[in-house]
Amino acid sequence: MAVFTEVSDEALVAFIAQYDIGEILSAKGIAEGVENSNYLLRTKEDSFILTLYENRVDPTDLPFFLTLKEHLAAKGIGCPVPIRARDGEVLHELSNRPAAIFTFLPGMWPRRIQPYHCGELGQALARMHLAGNNFILRRANNLSVQSWRPLLNRSADRADEVQQGLAENLEMELAVLELNWPDTLPSGVIHADLFPDNVFFRGPELTGLIDFYFACNDMFAYDIAICMNAWCFERDGSFNVTKAKSLLIAYRMVRVLSDDELAALPVLARGAAVRFMLTRLYDWLYTPAGALVVKKDPLEFWAQLRFHQRVTGPKDYGLA
Amino acid sequence: MAVFTEVSDEALVAFIAQYDIGEILSAKGIAEGVENSNYLLRTKEDSFILTLYENRVDPTDLPFFLTLKEHLAAKGIGCPVPIRARDGEVLHELSNRPAAIFTFLPGMWPRRIQPYHCGELGQALARMHLAGNNFILRRANNLSVQSWRPLLNRSADRADEVQQGLAENLEMELAVLELNWPDTLPSGVIHADLFPDNVFFRGPELTGLIDFYFACNDMFAYDIAICMNAWCFERDGSFNVTKAKSLLIAYRMVRVLSDDELAALPVLARGAAVRFMLTRLYDWLYTPAGALVVKKDPLEFWAQLRFHQRVTGPKDYGLA
Q1: What does the pLDDT read at residue B304?
Q2: B104 and B40 in contact (C-beta within 8 Å)?
Q3: Nearest Cβ partner of A110 from B9, B27, B200?
Q4: Which residues of B fall within a CB distance of 8 Å from A25?
Q5: DSSP character at residue B157
Q6: Is A64 helix (H, G, I), strand (E, B) or coil?
Q7: Can you list the alpha helix ranges (DSSP code H) found in chain A?
Q8: Is some CB atom of chain B closer than 8 A to the CB atom of A303?
Q9: How far is CA B80 from the centre of its chain?
């Protein structure tokens, strides 16, 4: 939950006046998101989201993120679309931060995942992968396999505070991943952070995807692996094969999954578990106690890693 | 900033179905308020506020707060009005907490106070005081003078962590206040917490008041004193007499202030400073480090107390 930057009413009114979105009626800080400050705006015309980009987002990445959302929306993918101000630009400054206004995406993220959610997700993910095909900007995945060892090194000397032997176990896993990480699989724009709180539903139907601030160019199957971890494990750490099957089958109805991609899923899913474990581990150890952010348990991904280490083939993910 | 209770989407949909407010499109946790959990709801029909009452609110007080808002709104005071469900009730249970849905009050609270804000406030405060006249429920002010000594005792042994000599200085001030606290001034329903973040404006006009969860029966002039402290001091602790004058003159245009009330303002304002200093002091010392609440500096009220101790008459508040 996060509103890192307080915005004065005068500054906000002046900011909004740059846009043709009507007179502002209210602005409420939203208690979601950990990277940026978000406000829900109501104007006489409609509702909008105002985002102020905090330090964790590299400003040089903003054109990629903003243009990507425009591109995907134009291809029919539900997502917040940046509004252009009268000067034609989407980025302006507010309270000394880059800021943008987005269309409001209706829907709620699912707190209790059902298999039908995973089916909707699989379909939307595949559609997004196809829609990104001819997107011209590029952004490297700076949180992929090559970043994990430096990330572990930053936390290693305190990792055992979280779990005895954690650093050593992660070292061993990293050695396997570095050796076996695929590099010839189909790639394109991936979301790279499609956890349930970034996917909105209205009743049983998916309305759209939000929070593209980790989007980058990488293997499509890695995006699927991230989703499997985020959507198909129960709270007790057990894998729900029905959910995985729903996700994968729905995905394949939209985009063909090659045999190579299927065969790589276990190692990609192990990598996905490690990637989130490492960033959470660092945040867990180094987020100041007073920060207005909920620290998330890095060990949530431990059971996922263990599961994927034992997978022997696509049938373990529900595929015949 | 506060969303203490996470609500599942299924529970929310079932909750909303008790009301005639249309299908729910979205629910966003609001990063404001420190007592309750608040969500901004959008339905097909309109926007609403959903409030879940957390432990700090005594459930037996809820009928007073909720009925008061209905009463005031019926008298033309802008404030959130509880929506009755189909069963005719305003309170229902959600995630094991009492919960209610309110109309959405447009407007934003002023981050930088100008004298015209204080004028609008004075008028609205007086109108609220008159509108509460024939309200039938009663609620004692459990944070008035008789509560301050017990409150100080709970923090006294650690108060010097905040400022050397703080406990002793507060002891001396309490002795003065207990001796001189008025008890024959005009009384009725007061808001008792009308800080700027509880008063909404649209441009220069006040649209309404929110957060009545300290409202009670007490002296009207005490409510004025709370507002003077909350609205008429600058960040450096200096008193802005122009703002106070705007507040008091606007108030008097709506409701007559007796000479006794005017004469009591300094002691009431000293008491108001002490009351907020004491609750903040306690929260400062005893709020757990991980709590998702911004701790507010108790010493913000120290300069206010010092100022009012030296006031010699209404002219120091800008009145001739």
Answers
A1: 95
A2: yes
A3: B9
A4: 106-107, 202
A5: H
A6: helix
A7: 9-16, 62-74, 115-131, 145-159, 166-180, 220-231, 241-254, 259-286, 302-309
A8: no
A9: 14
Spatial neighbors of A6 by CB under 8 A, at least 6 apart, are A95, B111
SS3 A152: helix
- How many residues in total does chain A contain? 320
Which CATH class, in words, describes the domain spanning A115-317? alpha beta
Q: Does A109 touch chain B (CB under 8 A)?
A: yes
Other C-beta atoms closer than 10 Å to the C-beta of B196 total 17
| 8 Å CB contact of B28 and A31 | yes
For residue A183, give the amino acid letter: D
Residue ranges of chain B with per-residue pLDDT less than 70: 1-4, 33-34, 288-295
pLDDT in the model for residue B283:
85
The answer for residues whose C-beta is within 8 angstroms of residue A191's C-beta and 6 or more apart is A125, A128, A198, A209, A212, A214, A215, A223, A226
Domain with CATH 3.90.1200.10 in chain B: 115-317
Interval B57-94: pLDDT, tens: 888 999 999 999 999 999 999 999 999 999 999 999 99
Distances in Å between the Cα of A189 and the Cα atoms of A90, A183, A252 are 21, 15, 17
Give the strands of the sheet with B47-52, arranged side by side. B24-29, B37-43, B47-52, B97-103, B92-94
Partners of A6 on chain B (C-beta within 8 Å) are: 111
List Cβ neighbours of A162 (8 Å cut-off, separation of 6 or more): A281, A284, A285, A298, A299
Q: Is the distance from CB of B207 to CB of B105 less than 8 angstroms?
A: yes
Q: Positive or negative CA dihedral for B132, B134, B138, B140?
A: positive
Segments of chain A with pLDDT less than 50: 1
Q: Parallel, antiparallel, or unpaired: how do β-strands B47-52 and A216-219 relate?
A: unpaired
CB contact under 8 A, A294 and B289: no
- What helix, strand, coil percent values describe chain A, rounded to 5? 45, 15, 40
User: Where does CATH 3.30.200.20 sit in chain A?
Assistant: 9-103
Rounded Cα distance, B32 and B9, in Å: 21
**Predicted confidence (pLDDT) per residue in A49-102, tens digit:** 999 998 878 889 999 999 999 999 999 999 999 999 999 999 999 999 999 999
Q: For domain A9-103, which architecture applies?
A: 2-Layer Sandwich (3.30)
Q: What is the pLDDT of residue B2?
A: 53
Backbone angles phi, psi at B162, to 5 degrees: -85, -45
End-to-end CA distance of chain B: 41
Window 57-86 of B, Cβ < 8 Å to A: none
ipTM surpasses 0.85: no
Q: Give the Cβ contact number of residue A315 at 10 Å.
A: 10
DSSP letters along A113-145, please? --HHHHHHHHHHHHHHHHHTTT-----B-TTSH
Asked if B9 and B50 touch (Cβ cutoff 8 Å), the reply is: no
